[in-house]
Structures are given as C-alpha cells and as structure tokens.
Design brief:
61 strands, Rossmann fold, eight-stranded parallel sheet, 30-stranded mixed sheet, alpha/beta
C-alpha cells in the first residue's frame, strides 16, 4: 500500500525538534538555567508527535480529537514563539556583547541568568507552556491515541474506481479536446514507436476521466486498435493489482493469483504483436522504477500501441509520458452552464423556473470551468425550486454543502492529503490570497521563509532555492496555475482556493472572506495569519474587531495596484501590540513613517513598505535581528537606509528598486553576508559606501543594479567587488551619473568597467552612462553566450560599438544615445563571424545623432536571420542602405531619420511599417509585401505614393498618414483590405479615394479638403473629421448608410449638417437619389463656430440615440421642424449662445433617458411633454439665464433619478418634486429668482443633495433616511457661528440625517466650530469636506471612527490647529483619519513644506 503524507502538524513539530536540539540554543538554555524545562518539553512533544497520524485519522469522526488537535496546534505555535525569543536574545547578545564583569556578577549570572528581566519574563511563559503541555499529554491518554511509525497508511478513504463507461449525451464542451487526443492516438507521428504514452494533466475535477472515456469509446479509435483496456490506478499504485486489472480488462476473465510473474506473462501473451490502447486513469505515483516494472508487458505490443495516463501531477507526466503532456483546461461558460442545468433541473433551460436563472448564473460563476463543481452544485439544487434555497447555496462555502451531496472537497482533498507535510503547511498558508489574486513565485517564497515554512535540509542549498522547489512542486501538482494575463504570475483556481481555506482550519483569516455582504465570521484569538484586500481608505472601524492578546504572525494587506490610505492607528497602535508578528506589509499605503517601537517586534522576518511615501526607516529597525526581507520598492521619497543596517545579519532580501533619492548605501553594508538579493547598490561619495563593499556579499543572485559609478575613484576598489565570482547573478546593470569632463575620469571608467566583468552565465546586461572612450574586451566576448538581453545607453564618449554579433543567445538589443558613433560595421558583427546575431529578435537604435552609415556584414545567410522587430529613431544623419535581407522581420519602424531614403526590398513576412520624418520611401518588389497589415508614414516632402508601392499593399488593414505637407491626393484602389484609415496634418490634400472595406476613418488637419467622398464606403461605421476648415457642409449623400458614429470637431467654416430634403438647393440631382435608411446612432459636434443648423429629421436620424453639441456659437436650431428624433436617448448641448429651443414638443413615446442643457443663454423653455417621458432618468439644466419655468406645470416623470438645476437666475419656480419617489440626486444651486423650496418637499428616497441659496431648507433633512451625501452652502446663513446653529432652547436649527456618509460644508463666513451634538449621531460618516470657512477653529468632539477622509480648504485658523503633531485638533481628533488634506496638500506634505 502506498503511503500518504504525514499530518501537517508533523512539519511544525520537526521545526520545534530542530530548535530544541540546536547546539547554539542548548548552550544558551544552559546559560539561562532553563535547559531542564526545555528538555522536559522535548520528551513530552516526542510522545505527542508519535500519535499525530492516529489523531489526524480519528478527528474525522471524533470532535474531541479534533479539538485536541486544534489546541495542540495552538500550543505548538506558542512553543515555537518562545524558542524564537531565546534564539533572538542569544543573537542580540552576540551582536552586542556586554563588557567584562566582576567575579561576583558572573556567579550571580550563573545562578539566575545573565539578563534578569529576560529570564523572569521567560520563566513565567515557560511555566504556562509546561502546564498546557501536561494537559495535552493527559488528554492524549484519555483519548487513547495510539503511536504509529512510518507514516499513515491510506486505508479509510477508498473511492469507487472509475470505469470506461460514459453517457455522451450528458457530456458537454469536450469535442475539441476529444478530437485533439484522437489525433494524437491515430497520428502517424508516433506510429513507428513501439509504445507511446500520452499524459492528460489537470487539477482534480476538470474532467480528465470523462475525456478519457469519450476517447476510449470512440468508433474510430476502436477500429484503429486491436485491443483496448481500462484500469483505474488511483493513489494506491499496487503493481500486482493494476496489472491484474489490465489483464482482466483485456480478457474479460477473472484471475485469483497474485503472482506478478504469472500475471505479467499472461498479459504479455495477450498483447504480443497487437496494437493496443490502454487507459491508466488517475495515476499519482511518480516513481520511475515502479513504472518500468509495470510497463514491461506493454513493450511486446505492435508498433503504434498507445497508453493514455490521466493525472493531476506533471511529474507523473514527466516520468511516464513519451509525448508532450496534454494540459486540460476548464470548460467554457456555455458548456458549464449546460452541465449545471442538466444536474440542477434535469432540463435544458429555465422555461419552467425563470426566477432561478439569474441566481443560477451567479452560482455557475463559482465553478470557474470545473465540471465537477457544476455537477455538485447543480446536484445540491436538484430538489430545490425556491429562489431563497438557491441563494442559500450561492452564499455557502463549498465544504458547507451537506456531506451526502458534496463531491468537490473529497476529490480535491485527496490532492491535499497526498502532499508531504511541509507542502501542506505551505499550501494552507495560501488561503490568505483572495480568489483570482495573481502572485509571483518570489513573493510567496519570501513569505514562506518568513513564516518558517521553508527549512534548510541540505547543505549548501539556500532556503530561497528550497522555497522555489516547494513552489514548483505545487505547480506540478496543479495547485497553482500560470496566469493567463501575465506568464510571470500565478493564480489558484477558485476550488483550489476553497481547498486552501479548508486546509488552513482557522489558522488563516481573510477579512474579505465573505460570500454575502452581511456575513463575516468573527476573528478568533487562535488565528495566526491575517490578510485583507485594502480599500482606498482603511479607517479604524475596519480593525476595531481585532481580538486582544493575539499571537498573530502575519499582517498582510494585498494591494490592487492603486494608492491607498491607512489610519495611523494601525502602524502606531495595532501593529505594536502584535508582539509575535513575523510578516508585516503596508505596501501601497500612503504612509510616511513607522514608529520607532517597530524594534519591539523582535520576531519580524519580513517588512514590505513598497510604494509607500516613507522618507526613512526608524534607526531602531536595525534591532530587528531576525529580519530576512526588507522591501522598499518604489518608495520615491525614501532618502536613506538605517545607519546601522549592518546589524541585520539575517537579512537575505533587500529591494530598493526605484528609490532615486537614496544617494549612497550605508557604511557597513558589507556585513550583511547573508544577502542573496540586493536590487541596487548606490556607490557613495568620499566617506560613504564603497563599491568594494560588495566583495563580501558572495551569495548575491538574480539582478544587481550598481549606480553612481562616477563616485568610484579607486580601480582597486572595483577589482575587489569580484563580480566574476558571483556566479548566481542573472542580470547586471551598471550606471554612471553625471561626471566631470576629465580625462582621468574617462581612463578610470575604462578600468572600472573592465573590473566589473560578471560571470559568463549572466543573461541580461545593461550599461548606462559609461564615460569611457572604449569598451573593455569582455563585452561581446563569445564566452558570454548566455546573454539574452543587452542595453547600451548614454555611452557618449565611445566612437564605436563593441563586438556584439558573437553573443549567440542574444535576442533583444537596444543601442541608445551613443552620440559619437558614426559608423556601424564589421566591428559590430565580429570579424570573421559567419553567423552573427543568429537569434536576435528585436533591435532598437535610438538617438544616434552622428550615425551616418550602416555597413552590412555581407554574410551568406544575411545579417539578422531571426530579427522580428527593427526600430530606428532620431538618427538625423543616417543615410545609405539598411540591411536588405531580413526574412523574419514583422515590425519595421523608422522615425526622424531626415536623410534616410527608406527602401523596403525583401521583407517577406513584414506586417507593420512605421516611417515618420524620413526623406523618402521606396519599394522595389510589391510581391514581397503581401503580408503587410499596418502602415504609418510621415514624409514632409511626399507628394504622392507610387503605384508600385501601393500595389503591394493589398493586405494592409490599417493605414496612418501624418504630416505629409505636400501630399495632394491619396488613391487607395489597391488597398482592398483596408479597415482603418487615419490622415493627420496633410494641409495640401485635396483628393481622396476611399475603399468599400473601410470601417474606421479619422481625418484631422486637412485644410484643403472640401468634400468627404464616403458614399461608396459601404462598410464604414466610425468617422471623425477634425480641423478641416474648407468643409462648408456635409451632405446626406456623403454619409454611407452603415455609419454608426460621426464626430465633427473644430471645422471652422462648416455651416450645415443637412439631409436631402432640407438642402435640395445645395445638392445635385445625382446626390438626391433615394438612399437606404441610416444606421447613425452617435453624433458629436464641437467647436464649429459657423454651424447654423443640424438637420435631425428624415432617415439620417431614424436611429440616432446619442447627440452632443458643444460650443457652436451660431447654432440657432437642431431641426428646421423643431422635432427631435424618436430614438434619441442622450442629448447634451453646451455653450450654444444663440440656440433658442431644443424642440417645441416631445412625443409621448420618445426614448429620452438623459438631457443636459448648459450655457445656452437664449433657451427660455424646455420642450413640452417632459413629464410623459417614461424612460427619462436625468435632467441637467445649467447656466441657462433666460429659462423662466419648466413646462407642463412643472411636473416631471415620476421615475427620474437625478435632477441638477444650477445658475438659472430667472427661474421662478422649481419643478414639482414631492412625487418623485425614484429621485436619488438633487442639486439646486444659485437659482436666485426662485422664491423658496417648499418645506418638507424633499423626495424621501434621496441619496445625494446639494443646496445653495435655499434658506428655508433647514427642516426636513433628518427625514431623508436614505441620504448619503449632503452639500450645503452658507449663503443665507451668514449669522451662524456654529454648524449647525443651536436655538436658545438647545435644539439644532438643522438636523442632519444619520445615514450620511459624505458631508460638504462651504462658504459659512462666521462659523467658529462644528457642533458636536450634530455630529454625534453620524455613525456612517466617511468623508467631511469644509471649504471657505475663514473663522472655523474647531472640529466636533468625537468624530466617528468611520471617518476616512477630511478635506479642509481656505480655513486658515483650522489649518493651524490641524498641523501634524502640533495642533490640538490633530492630537485629539484627526490623527487616525486615513486621509487629511489641507489646502490641496496632505497633512504630511504640509509638514514637509514647513
């Protein structure tokens, strides 16, 4: 029987035993007089460890055993914390040895320990642990747990074996996979092989067995093979059992014998010279020796025999497979949906249960392509037809589905149980990651290291490498998948994420771990690892339920790439309480400092402050002796590292990427001998850090960036670095900053770069700002054959490039700002090199001001046989020929090379061309441009494109012409595939011919163009015309019926947009031919000062849905008949001062949803019929100074959701609103002629309200129980001295709704304070905005903990009170608000300026 991995606790116990037997710690234990206690611990723990496997088996059926295991796990973590305290104290004393002591003191130390306070505190902790351990041992005996040895035998979790039978009618979405596997089986590629093994790999529940069944029962497969056999292997890889099962499948006979020899001989006889297909389903064993024994009889079959193996483990595939593994992906959404419906309803649709369909689709989204999940979740709903019952399943976790109906966790649990114990802990830790969270390998490995989940087990193997092995093992076992968005990131399938949460068993807590908005389990004191997804503003309320006395090890927000703000309560109060924490991340938060008390967190291994605004770390950080990882990436305000960083002797990973304000490394960094990753080394000046400090950092690996090399004045110092001895570096960047123009500096630079020669395995090399006149010989030497990526930038003294052609692995090469290079020739390729640049794929030359000639190498097979992208930019003197044989070139870009005649002679698979600012372009062979799909060119002197050139562009889909000042005509008859055409700044262009295939047209700055010949563009959908000042009108004839969106901007002389009926006098007879109905849906017109009329009738507007007109100063009407299109949904008119009306009347069935009229001074009324518009959601009327009243007696549609009426100074009455029960947003601003706002007339469901100039609105606000945002101006409340003002009897003159989340207070000239009484009930308030209250001095007492944002503008008195650390309001009221801004600066920036 095969063995399953030990209990997950075993790994933790292994850590404890290692610490209890460590020679260094034993010595310290004896010194502190605690060795006897800890030795007793060891003995008790060993007895407990012996029964762990039995306990893990019994916990399934006994809740008492499960409770015992939970308590034991909690105790084990506490023991580990205490042992870590001892180790930390021992290290502290080693780094800070105490001075010589007297004999008397030594005698005392021998009796009571050398540090009395430490010993006293530890003795009390030891006594507590001792008591708990004895209780655990007693309970062990009471529970009759038995000792086991050699691991736990898999005996109790047997599963029903799979068979070859399948009902194809109930399988969905695997047709293409089935075809692909059958193709492999019947392919002639492997037909001459004696035996081929094809592995299908994927996580549990993806349908590997079902796919194998479909293939096995296919008729073509059955005819192709002489024999077929099916065997379910499962996790028990018993060779006798499996061989017997295969034999019985082949012969249909039963065999009693268990003699392997007899069984294999019989099987060999049956398979001999027969072409057979064997399915080995659900294989777990990856032992090559076992496989070779099993496969022995199979080798006697005929040529072309095949074996299909299904497995979750890629290592099995590597062991057994002879062909590349077939990676099974999840089902499509449609296929999953069909499967779900089949099991949930036994039907193909929701016709009989329409109320369940939407919930069903939400449930389906949890499946993420897993047919097992679709089947199990559907099965759980099989007898349920109530929407509430379906919602209940939606909101439950997978493992909460009743046991008799669930099949997901047991299937996936087997993958977990098969993990070795150390991987179980690592995987369970991943439950901290939310679903769909994409993570880097390095990110997770560093966290594992910090948590002690990766332990050194082999000599000379860094724990980083061990962690990487753990990670890759979990990838191979299908626990992690490569992200489809970024190949460097990984993700867990949702079901695997569920499995991780199940495996974590209360150790990990994810704050956002809810399936419904009101369901959140409380955080237990036994939780050790905590994570959450930050919101933009995280205040105290988010953390107020944190239990006291937690032994938390992980505090891990997981940012989503946007800046967030955090309450000071977390770094200053919460984190200092977490005395056992090992991982702290505040990544992505806008914080500027850490408290010095950080040094008290002596267990800390990992600090991530990346992308914060921190300026410096407290010097006490150097007391964190256990710190392994310090991440400061993107800290753009960070100016220095701690001066005593040398004391962080366990530091292994230091990332200061993109911290440009750090001018030098701290002195003593050479003491950090355990550093494996150092992103940047900044060479200091004078007495600062020296480059030679890198000498002792012999374990550096990955990427190293050495900057400020201009500060190196001693070549011997550079020699000591010994980069050549750092053989694990993959990438090296060396950079010089500004250096004096001095021959001595130039000479030193040559020697320095020579001394910085890395080991030959380096894959990336970048040289930036080098000030030497020549490159050392090692750059380009053929021994650096592993370099894939090379950048040479700003080497302005060098007159020639190094020999690069011999770097045979080079794929990406960038040469930039080499201002003295005039010729690139043989020295670049390498003298005598027959195949230079054989694998180069991308080549960029940029800003080469003196480069004149590019001399080809002249080799037989061409210069760059694999080059896919060639980019040359800002080389104003380059002329002559470019390489003329680039058989692999796909993208070709030449920009701002004013002397270059660009020839395109021989690029057979070229797809994209960009030619901008060059002298000329020619093409000699049109046939060799047959694959070209995209062209961009800009040639000032170009008058026309040659016929030869155009004839080669038959496959071009995108054409962009820019700044061709002399181009007069553009004929595109040859561009029969053109889809998108852009013409920019071609002022002489008069004639243009457009092809029928065109879908998108953009014309800008073509001042001579008088007409738009678009009529034959029968596919055109989108057109934008801008800055075409010769256009007078656009006729209906010019607009093809397929056009959906038309934008016209800044056409100064355009007068009419008209159709045939309205402009018959302007159109020719030919133009008046009846046309098919227009599809135009979106029309946008702006900044056309001569436009008088937009015709909105006839077929042009039949389908028009969206109309915007901006800043057309002469526009008088939208339609000659004062009618708006029936289909119109969105209308916005802005700054049309002569427009008098939109329309007289709106039809009852108009489709209007949005209406905005702004800065139209002549508009006196709105169209009648507004109140009958059943779809209207929003009305905005702004700065219409002639508007007197609303039509229809002021009545509006009852379902309106938003009304904004601002600066309408003649408006005499507001529309009726009391019946607008759907209204959510109301803004009334500076309507000075409006007499009043009817008291208590606010619509009751308002969520947002803005009032200015409404003096009688003080009452009734508190009735708005749904109001979320209130903006109120002080106009009319000039006498108020507080907000709100109190009456003589103490009552508030304005009662604020308790539902408010956002309050804006503006323009109260005399208020001195904000009333505490008014604010005390605002328990949901999140944002407070105060502006232009010049006398305001005090904020209310007891600001709610929910407050996340405080903005104070133009309040000079309050500004002084709110200064960080100084003002009374800061100290008492606002120091814990995540974001405080005063006069557009954060409170921290304000302090910085001062």
């Amino acid at each position: 029987m095969s063995l399953i991995g030990e209990a997950a606790l075993s790994s933790l116990f292994g850590v404890l035993f290692d610490k209890l037997t460590s020679s260094d710690l034993l010595k310290f234990f004896q010194q502190e007089q605690v060795h006897a206690d800890l030795n007793k611990w060891k003995k008790m723990l060993m007895k407990i460890h012996a029964v762990l496997d039995d306990a893990e088996e019994k916990q399934v059926t006994s809740k008492f055993v499960k409770t015992w295991l939970d308590e034991l796990e909690d105790l084990a973590y506490d023991v580990d914390d205490i042992l870590d305290e001892f180790a930390t104290e021992a290290l502290r004393r080693e780094l800070n040895p105490e001075p010589n002591k007297s004999k008397v003191q030594k005698i005392i130390n021998a009796c009571v320990g050398s540090n009395g306070s430490f010993v006293r505190s530890m003795h009390s902790k030891i006594a507590e642990i001792d008591s708990r351990l004895q209780g655990i041992v007693k309970d062990k005996n009471d529970l009759e747990l038995r000792e086991t040895s050699g691991g736990r035998t898999k005996t109790t979790r047997s599963r029903v074996p799979t068979t070859s039978l399948v009902n194809e009618r109930h399988t969905y979405g695997r047709d293409e996979d089935k075809k692909a596997i059958i193709k492999l089986l019947l392919s002639s590629e492997f037909s001459d092989a004696q035996l081929s093994v094809i592995a299908m790999v994927g996580m549990g529940g993806l349908g590997k067995t079902t796919l194998a069944q479909l293939v096995y029962n296919d008729d073509d497969v059955s005819r192709y093979f002489d024999l077929k056999a099916w065997a379910c292997v499962s996790e028990d890889f018993d060779i006798v059992r499996v061989t017997k099962a295969i034999l019985q499948s082949v012969t249909s006979n039963h065999y009693e014998t268990n003699d392997l020899n007899i069984i294999q001989v019989k099987l060999k006889e049956k398979l001999y010279d027969k072409k057979f297909l064997l399915i080995l389903d659900d294989v777990w064993n990856e032992d090559y020796d076992d496989w070779t024994k099993l496969r022995c009889p199979f080798e006697f079959g005929a040529l072309g025999s095949k074996i299909i193996v299904t497995t979750r483990n890629y290592n099995v595939s590597s062991t057994m497979g002879t062909a590349p593994a077939y990676e099974l992906e999840g089902l499509s959404k449609d296929a999953c949906w069909h499967l779900f419906k089949q099991h949930a309803l036994g039907a193909t649709d929701f016709t009989e249960h329409p109320a369940l369909e939407e919930i069903g689709r939400e449930i389906l989204s949890r499946c993420k392509g897993s047919p097992l999940a679709a089947k199990v979740l559907g099965g759980a709903l099989r007898t349920k037809r109530s929407p509430n019952e379906w919602k209940n399943v939606l909101n439950r976790k997978v493992w909460d589905i009743p046991k008799e109906k669930k099949g997901i966790i047991p299937v996936l649990e087997l993958s977990y149980q098969y993990l070795p114990s150390h991987l179980k802990r690592c995987f369970a830790y991943c439950s901290l990651f939310p679903k769909d969270y994409e993570f880097e390998e390095n990110e997770l490995v560093l966290l594992w290291m910090a948590e002690g989940l990766v332990q050194e087990t082999e000599r000379n193997k860094p724990i980083e490498d061990l962690g990487a092995e753990y990670f890759h093992d979990l990838v191979m076992r299908s626990f992690f998948q490569q992200s489809s968005n970024n190949e460097s990131l990984f993700v867990m399938h949702d079901l695997i994420n569920d499995l991780a949460q199940w495996a974590a068993k209360g150790l990990c807590y994810r704050l956002e771990d809810t399936l419904s908005s009101n369901e959140q389990s409380k955080m237990s004191t036994k939780v050790r690892h905590f994570s959450y997804i930050p919101c933009q503003f995280d205040g105290i309320k988010k953390f107020e339920d944190f239990p006291k006395d937690m032994h938390l090890r992980t505090f891990l927000p997981l940012p989503r790439n946007n800046m967030c703000y955090l309450t000071n309560y977390v770094p200053n109060c919460l984190l200092p309480q977490l005395s056992y924490v090992r991982v702290i991340s505040l990544c992505g938060y806008e914080i500027i400092e850490l408290p010095s008390s950080i040094s008290n967190l002596k267990h800390l291994r990992y600090i991530n402050l990346s992308y914060t605004s921190i300026r410096s770390l407290p010097e006490s950080t150097s007391l964190l002796y256990n710190l392994q990882t310090l991440m400061l990436k993107g800290c753009h305000k960070l100016t220095k590292l701690p001066e005593k960083i040398r004391d962080l002797v366990n530091l292994r990973y230091l990332d200061i990427t993109d911290t440009s304000l750090i001018r030098e490394m701290p002195v003593g960094i050479e003491k950090l001998k355990n550093l494996h990753t150092l992103s940047n080394f900044v060479v200091g000046k004078d007495s600062g850090s020296k480059i030679g400090d890198l000498m002792n950092l012999e374990f550096l690996q990955g990427r190293l960036y050495i900057s400020s090399l201009e500060n190196v004045l001693d070549v011997e110092d550079a020699r000591r670095v010994n980069l050549n001895g750092k053989k694990n570096l993959d990438a090296l960047v060396v950079k010089w900053g500004f250096a004096p123009r001095d021959l001595q500096y130039e000479s030193i630079a040559v020697d320095i770069l020579d001394m910085l020669r890395p080991w030959t395995t380096v894959k990336e090399l970048s040289i930036d700002g080098y000030i030497g006149v020549k490159f050392p010989s090692w750059i380009g030497d053929h021994s650096f054959s592993n370099i894939v990526d090379l950048k040479i930038v700003r080497c302005e003294k060098c007159m020639s490039l190094p020999t690069i052609g011999r770097l045979f692995s080079l794929k990406f090469l960038i040469i930039k700002s080499m201002s003295k290079v005039q010729t690139i020739g043989p020295e670049f390729y390498g003298e005598g090199c027959l195949t230079p640049f054989r694998f180069l794929e991308k080549l960029h030359f940029e800003d080469m001001q003196e480069w004149q000639d590019w001399i080809p190498c002249g080799v037989e097979y061409g210069d760059f046989p694999c080059l896919r992208e060639l980019f040359i930019s800002q080389c104003p003197k380059l002329q002559g020929k470019l390489p003329n044989h680039l058989p692999s070139l796909e993208n070709f870009s030449i920009k701002y090379c004013e002397q270059l005649v660009v020839s395109i002679p021989s690029f057979p698979i070229l797809q994209e061309i960009e030619i901008v600012g060059c002298k000329e372009v020619v093409s000699k062979n049109k046939d060799e441009l047959c694959l070209l799909k995209s062209i961009i060119f800009s040639i000032p002197g170009l008058k026309s494109l040659t016929k030869e050139f155009m004839e080669g562009l038959g496959k071009v889909k995108n054409l962009k012409v820019i700044d061709c000042n002399e181009l007069t005509s553009l004929w595109q008859d040859s561009l029969m595939s053109l889809v998108k055409l852009e013409i920019w700044s071609c002022p002489s262009l008069i004639n243009i011919s457009l092809t029928p295939t065109l879908k998108t047209l953009y014309i800008k700055g073509c001042g001579a163009l008088k007409s738009l010949p678009m009529s034959n563009c029968t596919s055109l959908e989108y057109a934008t015309i801008e800055h075409c000042n010769s256009l007078l009108f656009i006729s209906r004839h010019q607009l093809p019926p397929t056009l959906k969106r038309l934008e016209i901007q800044r056409c100064a002389n355009l007068q009419f947009l008209i159709d045939e009926g309205e402009a018959s006098s302007l159109l020719t007879k030919e133009e008046s031919i009846k046309r098919s109905a227009s599809l135009l849906e979106h029309l946008y017109i702006s900044n056309c000062p001569s436009l008088k009329c937009v015709s909105l009738r006839g077929e042009l507007s039949e389908k028009l849905k969206h109309l915007e007109i901006w800043t057309c100063s002469k526009l008088t009407s939208l339609s000659s008949r004062d009618q708006l299109p029936m289909a119109l949904k969105y209308l916005q008119v802005y700054n049309c001062p002569k427009l008098e009306s939109l329309a007289n009347k709106l039809p009852n069935n108009a489709s209007f949803e949005y209406l905005k009229i702004s800065h139209c001074q002549e508009i006196k009324s709105l169209p009648e019929g507004l109140h009958k518009l059943n779809h209207l959601n929003e009305i905005h009327v702004d700065n219409c100074c002639s508007l007197v009243s609303f039509p229809d007696g002021g009545f509006l549609p009852t379902h309106l959701r938003k009304i904004l009426i601002t600066n309408c100074v003649k408006l005499e009455a507001l529309p009726c609103m009391h019946n607008l029960t759907s209204l959510q947003t109301l803004c009334i601003y500076e309507c000075t002629s409006t007499v009043c706002f009817p008291e208590y007339a606010f619509p009751t469901n308002l969520k947002e309200l803005l009032l200015k100039g409404m003096t009688n609105c003080k009452q009734g606000l508190n009735r708005l129980t749904s109001l979320r945002r209130l903006t109120i101006y002080g106009n009319g409340f000039q006498d108020w001295q507080s907000f709100p003002e109190e009456e003589d009897d103490g009552k508030m003159m304005m009662m604020l709704p308790t539902s408010l989340t956002s309050l804006w207070i503006l323009n109260f000239p005399n208020i001195v304070l904000l009333s505490s009484k008014a604010f005390q009930n605002l328990s949901a308030l999140e944002k407070l905005y105060v502006d232009n209250c010049p006398k305001l001095a005090y904020l209310p007492e007891g600001l709610p903990h929910t407050l996340l944002k405080l903005y104070v503008y133009n309040c000079p008195v309050l500004k002084q009170q709110c200064k960080k650390g100084k003002g009374q309001e800061w100290l008492k009221k606002i120091n814990n608000i995540p974001l405080v801004k005063i006069d557009y600066q954060s409170i921290y920036e304000l302090e910085e300026d001062e």
